[in-house]
C-alpha cells in the first residue's frame, strides 16, 4: 500500500493547485463527501474483477471500471436528493472537474496495484497452504503428515523448523 499511496499522492500533487486541493479536501471531509465513498464501497461487489482473478488472470482496467460503475450507480440510486445535489455541485466545481479528469490515470494506478503482489508473497501463500494441508492431514493421520512434512523439508519446499 505505501507504494500505491506514493504514486496516488504524486498524481494529486501533479494535478491540483493548492486552492483546488483545499476545496477537494473540504468536500471529502464533509458528511456529504464521506457518504459518497462509504456508500460506494458498501455497494462494491468486485464481481467482474473477482471473476477475472478466479479464472487465473489479472483484473483488467475494464473489470475494475465495470465494478466501480455498478457500485456508483447503486450509490446514486439510493442517495437522498439533497445529498445528490451537493455531490453533483461539487463535481461540477473546478476541484470536482479535476477529480473527474484524473479518473483514467487513477484507474490505471488502481489496476496496477490491484494486481500487485509484493516479492515473495506467492511463496508465503504456497507455504501457508501446504502447512494448512499438513495440519489437516495430521488430524486423521499424524504419521503420514510427519512423513510428508519431512519430505517437503528435504526438497526445500518447507523450511527446517
What keywords describe this structure?
mainly alpha; 161 residues; 2 domains; single chain
Give a quick account of the main beta sheet: strands, pairing sense, barrel closure.
none
Distance between the first and last residues' Cα: 31 Å
Shape: elongated
Overall pLDDT level: 87
The H/E string reads HHHHHHHHHH
Rounded radius of gyration (Å): 23 Å
Overall tally of structural domains: 2
Poorly predicted spans? none
- Output the number of helix runs: 10
Number of beta strands: 0
Helix content: over 70%
Alpha-beta content class: mainly alpha
Brief summary of the model shown:
By secondary structure, the protein is mainly alpha-helical. It folds into two domains: 2-114, no CATH class; 121-154. Helices cover 81% and strands 0% of the residues.
